[in-house]
Each structure stands twice: as C-alpha cells, then as structure tokens.
Amino acid sequence: MASTLTAAKLVTRDTVVDRPLITVDNDGRIASISTREAAQAASVTHDFGDSTLTAGLLDIHMHGGAGHDVMEGTTGALDTVSRFLASHGVAEYLATTVTASLDSTFHALEGIANYIERTPVQDGAKPIGIHIEGPFVSHAKKGMHPAQFIVEPTPDLLNKFWEASRGTIRLMTIAPEVPGALDTIRRATELGIRSSIGHSNAVKAEALKGIEAGATTATHTFNAMRPYDHREPGILGLVLDREDLFADIICDGIHVAPEGIRLFLKAKGSHRAILITDALEAAGMPNGQYKLGGTTVHVKDGTCTTNEGILAGSVITLDRAVDKLREFTGADLPTAVRLASTNPSAMLGLPDTLAPGQPASFNVYNAAGQRTQTILRGKLLN
C-alpha cells in the first residue's frame, strides 16, 4: 500500500530539504516529494524524527562480498552479494568483473546479465549494470590483474562483451595508452558505456587522448596510476586537475592515506568525486584466504594482498567509506553521501535518484550522522 515518509531533512542531489514529505506508491517507487508545510493535511506512515534521509548508496566498483564473487555469475552467489550490500545501505550497484580468461569473462557477463533481468531479491540491492575492470589494462600498472589474461582492446572484442552482457555493460576501465584503446573508447561511447581511465601508466599526452576519445572518469585514483611528477603530471595530474572529469577513490585508509583523500576531495570537489569500495568476496568475512576472479587473496586486518604481496581490492563497505571520508576530511553528511549515491549516478548519466518514478530507496541517518536504517524500494529493512 502507499505510504508517506518524513524526517528532519532530506539530502537531494543539489540541496537539503527541511521537513520533507515523501509519498511512496504501491510499487515501491517515489510518487512525490514535497514538505510537511506544503502538504499539511497528509498523514505520515513513517516519521523518522530528527533523522536525515538520503538516497540509497550506489557502488559502481565492487567484485563481491559475504563469501561470493560476482564472477561466479549464479543466482545464489548474486543473491548473497545483493543482500550483503543492502545490509550496508547500498540500493544499487555495478557488478564488477576482473581480468580473467575470455571464457570466464563471457560466462560471468552472461550470468550477471541473467541476474540483472530478474526481479531483484526482495531484501537485496539491485545490480543496474556491469563494470568491466579488465582485460583492457596496462601491464605496467596491472596491479593484481593476471598478466596472462590481459589483452589489447579492440572495438570487436568490446562488441562481443556487449553481446554476452546483452547490453548491460555501463562502465569500462581502460588504459588509454595501450594499442587499440582510443578506438575502443570511441566504440564504448557509441554503445552508451562510460569509459574510465585506470590501471594505466599513461603520460599526460596519452591520457589527454583518452579523454578526447570519450573517457569521462577515472578508476581508483592514485592506485595503479603513474605517479605525479611536476614536469610530467601524467594521468594522475590530469585526473586531479580536470574539472570536467569524474574520479573515484577507495576511502579505507589503506589504499590512500588520509592526506591523499583530502587532496582528492579538494581537487575534484563535491560534485565530481565518487566513493567506491573495490570490495572482494572477503568483505564481511573473517581474516583468511579468498579469491578475486581466479587469484588467491590473503585478508588480514582489512588489508587484501596476493601471494606476491600486491594490494588487491578491499573489504570496506560503502557506508563505512562514507564514514571514513567524513573522518578524514571533515566533510558534512550531505557531501559524503552524495559521493556514494548521486555523484556516481550522475557520472553514469542516470536520472536523478530522488525523482518521481524512481525506486524509493533511502538511508536514515540519526542526528549524530550514523546510518541506522535502510529503506529499499519502499520497504523498511532494519
């Protein structure tokens, strides 16, 4: 049945609404957003008092959680991942693949596409597309990506990935300096895929060509990128300097020091910065040995490394990344939440999350700025 929600504040993409009144229809979608003053006669189903409502979170770069990797591509695995994400305030996500054999990649793309086309599990986040992180990465900045499965990008191979995913790829990480990258970025743009420059050793001129070809964002800033040099700023210098580029970052205090997080936010500003997790199947699990694609990853006290000691993804959750950003930078709650919700949505070119007709997914933050509850497609989860 239809319901109404109210709280002290509502954080939208551009402003903060005092004393909001949100009507949710029978299908769990937003019917209207107004204020209690503008609709004084309306009854309220859920009054969250002095709390703040925000959009549900959107993780555009996550590989798994709760013991499962999205590369498994099965309903059971993805149901588990989706429920885990929702328990941490994530309403939607991009299931993110990793460099693997082409057969494994096609299998994963087809399995994830099948899952995307299903009715979402009732208490789980919804995958709204796929992020392919690899195999179009640089050998020089491959990180944990297996060298034997890295391939040069071509529009033809991207077309095959697109067909296997049945048109659900929304984001592609690519190193702009490798042969074939520029034509592949152009083809991605034609398909409506956002291209993100990352796992790259590009110098400034090479990174510029990637941007000119259509790249609009950058993957886990600072990590797997050519270091900044004052005479050759390279990819990192462009990412931090360009006001027209989005960029994302892993805010766990392990991948990037707090000083780097502060520099990133100052450079990108509150509308172009994005929080991601790069979370593995080990997220939500105890210390131990896990997998990212086919690579063994050892997890101890929040740090994930390969057998060779290379940093490999994270175990942070997106709600915790919001908290960490506030801790490291002093950002207010509206700014921090936008980096994990409306900013990634805007980067993907999606409609405003908090608009009539959109799923009624919200997080509830108490007066102390702590997430206390999640509303997923009109249903109160906790």
CATH class descriptor name of the largest domain:
Alpha Beta
CATH topology of the largest domain: TIM Barrel
CATH architecture of the largest domain: Alpha-Beta Barrel
Tell me the number of strands.
23
Biggest sheet overview: 6 strands, mixed
Question: Order of strands across the widest beta sheet?
Answer: 3-2-7-21-22-23
- Count of helical stretches: 10
Number of self-contained structural domains: 2
- Globally, the shape reads globular
Helix-strand category: alpha/beta
N-end to C-end Cα span: 19 Å
Description:
- The chain is α/β, with parallel strands linked by helices and 382 residues long.
- The protein starts with a strand and ends with a strand.
- The chain has 2 domains: 3-53 and 357-380, Urease, subunit C, domain 1, CATH 2.30.40; 57-347, Metal-dependent hydrolases (TIM Barrel), CATH 3.20.20.140.
- The mean pLDDT is 96.
- Helix content is 27%, strand content 26%.
- α3 (155-164) packs parallel to α4.
- The protein has 10 helices and 23 strands.
- The chain has helices at 75-86, 102-116, 155-164, 181-191, 204-213, 234-241, 258-272, 318-329, 333-338, 342-347; strands at 3-6, 9-11, 16-18, 20-24, 30-35, 46-47, 52-55, 57-62, 64-65, 68-69, 90-98, 126-133, 169-174, 194-197, 217-218, 247-250, 273-276, 288-292, 295-300, 303-306, 362-365, 371-376, 379-380.
- β2 and β3 form a beta hairpin.
- The strands form 6 sheets. A 6-stranded mixed beta sheet has the order 3-2-7-21-22-23.
